[in-house]
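Comment thread on ticket #2218

A.B. wrote:
> Attaching the input chain for the structure job we discussed in standup.
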Amino acid sequence: MATFIGIDLPTWWFLLIGAVFSGYAVLDGFDLGAGALHLFIRDNTHRKMALKAIGPVWDGNEVWLVIGGGALFAGFPNAYASVFSAFYIPFILFLVFIIFRAISIEFRDKEPWKWWRDFWDFCYFLSSLLISLALGLVFGNIIYGIAIDSQGEFQGSWLAFINPFSILIAITTLVLFMMHGANYLALKTKGHLFLHTERFLRNTTALFVIFYIISSLVALIYVPQITGRFIRQPILFVVGIIALLTVLNVIRLVIKKSYYWSFIFSGITICLLLILVAIGIYPNLVFSNIDGVTGLNIYQAASSDKSLTIMLIFAAIGVPLVVIYTIFVFYTFRGRVSEKDLGY
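C.D. wrote:
> Ran it. Output below, let me know if you need it in another format.
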């Protein structure tokens, strides 16, 4: 097995894919959360301001999802095949929701009729809500395990994905994104809408803390394949403690109305939660819930060393360019939006 700086290539790709999906969760997470809050904003002008806040960045944020999917296909084609075979229907629905969200944002103000705006506002809200829940549902099943055999073939029914643990993770993901989105809107808006988003932020932060505690306790008790590594290596609980302190710091910063730093720390919270799961599943990519089958690990699912090496070089060039582009866009469109701003 070839190595780079003392780390084997499949592990490098495991880290790369984790970093890219973390970037997607942090970036698209806040505009999905803002969308899930959209119908709670009653005034048409305020809804338009909320759309202006995410208007310059939402489509660029989705680039990270495309990169993550491409990296998974390139680095771990066997895992890609198993996961997409298992989640075929959820992923198709996920793509439909993404399309409807884009259409809703673009079409909302194309006509002056109230029913037209209300219809697309509802589509935007519903698609953002369902995308968040779908991501959480897939994530919950990755943690819990799916019915794949020793050959990586899916042997179950897609209805099995709707289980209590994955539903809990789906709701927790939705609330986390809503907190993150409310924080972003608090940073980007002013006037009466800002006052509304402050209330949204306080409520969603409190709700996330509740679901975070519940989902953590349930995972510790009912998902031993995740907690096993932490029990064998107690030093890793330090990461969990840091994650908890980060969540508590978000609460402190929200109370202090330090919304810039609370947004930063809500993003760090998302990353730390994904790191906790990565530590728990490594070196596996997909757990199996069939007795006697462990699932697929990074070594079974990886491409050849030559392919991984060549693609890692391209990734080392491409990913920093996307990071630079993302920073440039956020810097260019910094500041708060107002009713007079042009755009969405």
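A.B. wrote:
> Thanks. Noting for the ticket: Strands lie at 3-4, 7-8, 284-287, 295-297.
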